[in-house]
Design brief:
There is one protein chain. The protein is α+β, with helices and mostly antiparallel strands and 352 residues long. The chain is built from 11 helices and 11 strands. The chain folds into 2 domains: 89 residues; 241 residues, Bira Bifunctional Protein, Domain 2 (BirA Bifunctional Protein, domain 2, 2-Layer Sandwich), CATH 3.30.930.10. It is 39% helix and 20% strand. The strands form 3 sheets. Strands 1-4-5-11-10-7-6 form a 7-stranded mixed sheet, sandwiched between helices. The protein is elongated and about 125 Å long.
Length: 352
């Protein structure tokens, strides 16, 4: 047994010298001093020795056990100390270096401009209503007096939802919420409807398949086209300043009569200054050399639309307008194309 103790002691010395980390030390402790460890087994076998040899071997075994316990603890402390010293070196921080700047996101320019318009309209007494991106064909077309053979109802213009028997679509405009508002609210009505809409447009400088609109609706007694024109002047002066040039072009919309397109002087090639307007550029990709940009449509609410919503057109009249938020955002920032708004380029968006 004495030979076993000496052999075990030499074995432990070698193991301690080759231990690399705390895990190695713990494995050695369990292997030697654990319940089934070698040292524990030697102590258990002392009872098999003769009485005269048991006392001497017991003393020697206890000395070896105490030595092992001390060596294991000292080696553990040595390894921990070395590990901490290495960690301090590896994680040394030069506090004189400049800090790392965190890039903080900003609001999208379309969102910022939409909120700006909302502030204008709420100050004028308008309520804000919002709707779903998926709408019924009835609210998007039928209730707005759009005939079955109208081009806007073709699949080449509108996104129909598969599996719904062509009853649901991605809304083409936010006008369906005008219908829903008139159906549930009696005049007087003054609301705006901001939101995202979808159309099957090819991407170019002034068109995208997804864009943002803000439509307005006013229904009351004795509302005339003059009231509409006055509201348009307020919007244009608020957004583009007093020098912006505006024109109305007669047009046709199924849900308004009479109807008009609202244009402003091209923000890309035409510069409006007091008493002077520079001529348009024939090569301008935004206005195609016309000098004007179509921003929105407007008109007096069609009597048939009022009837479908339970409002007597003999007693009430009203006007509606649809603002192209994305195009107007480009106009105020002088950006000649709509593409950057949908490319998620942080370098572009951070400018706003």
């Amino acid at each position: 047994m004495l030979d076993k103790l000496n052999e075990l002691q030499e074995k432990i010395k070698v193991s301690l010298e080759t231990a690399k980390d705390k895990a190695d030390i713990e494995d050695l402790r369990v292997k030697i001093l654990g319940k089934k460890g070698e040292m524990t087994q030697i102590l258990k076998n002392l009872g098999t020795l003769p009485a005269d040899a048991r006392k001497e071997m017991g003393k020697k075994a206890n000395e070896v056990r105490d030595w092992v316990t001390t060596q294991i603890e000292e080696t553990r402390i040595k390894i921990e100390t070395a590990s901490q010293a290495k960690q301090l070196i590896d994680e040394t921080m030069d506090i004189t270096l400049p800090g790392k700047r965190k890039n903080i996101g900003s609001l999208h320019p379309v969102t910022t401009f939409m909120w700006r318009l909302e502030d204008l309209f709420t100050s004028l007494g308008f309520d804000i209503v919002e709707g779903d991106l998926i709408e019924t064909v009835y609210h998007n077309f039928d209730a707005l007096n759009t005939p079955k053979n109208h081009p806007s109802r073709d699949e080449s213009d509108t996104f129909y939802i598969e599996g719904t028997n062509d009853e649901f679509i991605l809304r083409c405009h936010t006008s369906p919420m005008q219908i829903r508002t008139m159906q549930r609210q009696k005049p007087p009505i003054r609301v705006i409807v901001p939101g995202m809409v979808s159309r099957r447009d090819e991407i170019d400088a002034t068109h995208t398949p997804v864009f943002h609109q803000m439509e307005g609706l006013v229904i009351d007694k004795d509302i005339t086209f003059a009231d509409l024109r006055g509201m348009l002047d307020i919007i244009v002066r608020y957004v583009f300043g007093a020098e912006a040039k505006v024109r109305l072009r007669p047009t046709h919309f199924p849900f308004t009569e009479p109807s008009a397109e609202v244009d402003i002087s091209c923000y890309s090639c035409v510069t409006a200054k007091p008493g002077k307007i520079s001529p348009p550029n024939d090569n301008c990709s935004v206005c195609k050399g016309s000098g004007w940009i179509e921003l929105w449509g407007c008109g007096m609410v069609h009597p048939e639309v009022l009837r479908k919503c339970g409002i007597d057109p003999e007693e009430y009249s009203g006007y509606a307008f649809g603002l192209g938020i994305t195009r107007m955002t480009s106009a105020i920032h002088g950006i000649p194309t709509l593409k950057p708004y949908f490319e998620n380029d942080v370098q572009f968006l951070s400018q706003f």
